[in-house]
């Protein structure tokens, strides 16, 4: 893709206003880093994701555990939750704009919604996938409900829970960019809109690269953390 981009700009297949040269985009990105502009907007977006994802993932973990441990809770909650999950995250924005405005609350809710669905479903799947033999051992040892959850259920569900964290973080990040495109004066999504409005396509491409790199770093970081936890579990056994 980089080679095709370089050839297209060098041979003038598209006007420079539409497809700036890689060297020009690199210079723009360098200037934005040195000035602190790109780092500032990246920090704003990361801060929003941290708050929204923590809320959404926490609620999803609790909801997944509740449904996983109680079939009654699952029977009452899961149908409505699945209906809620079918509505795309960005589809909630028009209604939420009327209810909470376009400030930070809107962004946090949208980010949290992006995290809660994969976190809930993967936690539920992980808990239901714990071997019944482990449950029987816990009952034989007369574990309390809290001990059963802490020593048997959650450790057995860790791989699935981490899958939920990874998908939840990915959904939160893309949801953040989407809501920043529509209602924000700061953040990487805002940079995309601002660059498009000013017809500074070099700024748009720099923001796109930053969004992709940050998402990749977060995903690889979680992947590394999961491997370390799995290694620790194997050593413990």
From TrEMBL:
It is a multi-pass membrane protein. It holds the Pfam family BPD_transp_1. GO terms for biological process: alkanesulfonate transmembrane transport. It is found in: Cell membrane. This is ABC transporter permease subunit. The chain crosses the membrane at residues 49-69, 81-102, 108-127, 148-169, 198-218. Belongs to the binding-protein-dependent transport system permease family. GO terms for cellular component: plasma membrane. Residues 42-222 form the ABC transmembrane type-1 domain. Probably part of an ABC transporter complex. Probably responsible for the translocation of the substrate across the membrane. CDD domains: TM_PBP2. It comes from the Bacteria. Keywords: Cell membrane, Membrane, Transmembrane, Transmembrane helix, Transport. PANTHER family: ALIPHATIC SULFONATES TRANSPORT PERMEASE PROTEIN SSUC-RELATED, ALKANE SULFONATE ABC TRANSPORTER-RELATED, MEMBRANE SUBUNIT. Coiled coil: none annotated.
